[in-house]
């Protein structure tokens, strides 16, 4: 789909192969083998080794310890080790429980990954890492894991991915009427703006946000906690509390929570989900509900609205409320980035310092963005110098798009964090382009699907978890 979000929004197991280390880390840290049902009774008798019984399987202390050891090994790569503690063990246990449930569900519904399919996937990964199969096998063994074990972990990841595609992706239905309504809303909004702008220019909206991030791969419990915090902030914001002071207080309590006044922006320079949320809000009004984006939860407030005084960009001779399909003008940005992916144990402060060093080198012209991206970026765009191509409104995750839209042509950003990691962004060029009716429908379908998918996926995980029989043994009360 031409206008579907770029690779920044599609982190799939097949695509994580820009470097060998990332491939190995991803698969080594996200799957552990399911217990053989024939050994369950014997394992349960060995109570000291079992932390949880999950339907017909178990989670053992060794699995938890192995997972933590794997995470700590990744952390040492970034120069830091993960802190030990009850919270880490609880998160690891919950992730293992969810993995067991998904593998069991896949087995029960007849899903399988044949040896032929698995071998083809392994060959593809080796090719993406520019290695022969024999060299790739040796590289796996050097990490301390047998190739057979790696293959089984990979098989489980593929199985979970196929289960999700069947149970979630395939169940998301988007009707032509939904697409039509989405486009009509867009045209009415743009048409109204154009009509008002004929004398005074397009409207600009000053929006402020308080952002509660959700780490990539966070379990249902962590996501529920983040939503609860966001809704608590929203409740206060809708009262008499000063919005920016409220954000500052939340940041003081938890430095990961961010708050910012985005300043005056035309609608085409705001993330689409922001535009939809504040569309009917007047100055000083707070959004009625929390926004969920792939990066986390957002609480929004309209600080002000004004006319920019410039000519309307989306000129049209049509009536402002005319909803007849027509091409629309949008501002597209050509940008490039350097991405350092998130992974357990890699401290934010270390990544920020690293990207600030790259930024300073680019500004001092002792290094160029293209070569740094090719050498250090952990994204598929690295081979192209980090160039992402022409992107329109809503094509990128909100934190990235917001930061990109604030840059002048040629300017390099400070480090920007999204759910995918930390980015250094440079705007190369901007242009006005027509969005054809056909492209509008593609964009609408992608936007609607994304909006529906996150909720559907979380609902599905909760349903699996709620219908499973999970017993946390008393011997491990600290994991509750």
Automatic annotation (TrEMBL):
Membrane spanning residue stretches: none
Domain PpiC: 202-304, 330-429
Gene Ontology CC terms, in alphabetical order: outer membrane-bounded periplasmic space
This enzyme's EC code(s): 5.2.1.8
Lineage: superkingdom: Bacteria
GO molecular function (one): peptide binding
Enzyme class: isomerase
Reactions this protein catalyses: [protein]-peptidylproline (omega=180) = [protein]-peptidylproline (omega=0)
Compartment(s): Periplasm
SUPFAM superfamilies: FKBP-like, Triger factor/SurA peptide-binding domain-like
Example GO BP: protein stabilization
Keywords, ordered alphabetically: Chaperone, Isomerase, Periplasm, Repeat, Rotamase, Signal
Domain comment quoted from the record: The PPIase activity resides only in the second parvulin domain. The N-terminal region and the C-terminal tail are necessary and sufficient for the chaperone activity of SurA. The PPIase activity is dispensable for SurA to function as a chaperone. The N-terminal region and the C-terminal tail are also required for porin recognition.
Record HAMAP family: Chaperone_SurA
Record's function text: Chaperone involved in the correct folding and assembly of outer membrane proteins. Recognizes specific patterns of aromatic residues and the orientation of their side chains, which are found more frequently in integral outer membrane proteins. May act in both early periplasmic and late outer membrane-associated steps of protein maturation.
Protein name per Swiss-Prot or TrEMBL: Chaperone SurA
Species of provenance: Polynucleobacter sp. UK-FUSCHL-C3
Gene from which the chain derives: surA
